[in-house]
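Researcher: Next sequence.
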Amino acid sequence: MTMDTIETIRYARPISGAQVDPLAHRGFVGRTAVVLRSLVRQIDRMLERRRGRLALMEMTDEQLKDIGVSRCDAHREGIRPFWE
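Model: Next structure:
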């Protein structure tokens, strides 16, 4: 195999309908950016879950009754760590 053949194989377009790895043609910086964005989204989801749990603990007994949650269940949910 000559060097031209290797370059042709490396940069050939995928066959129509074939699965293409979205990170395959990105460099290190591009892949790192994708991973960091994913990490930030995951942290954002965990913090949003925590805010929701804290709001649940602040509800009155009437509000909890309206949504069908007991005070005990609200407290149990509210003290869970944000990563769960």
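Model: The longest helix spans residues 28-58. The mean pLDDT is 81.
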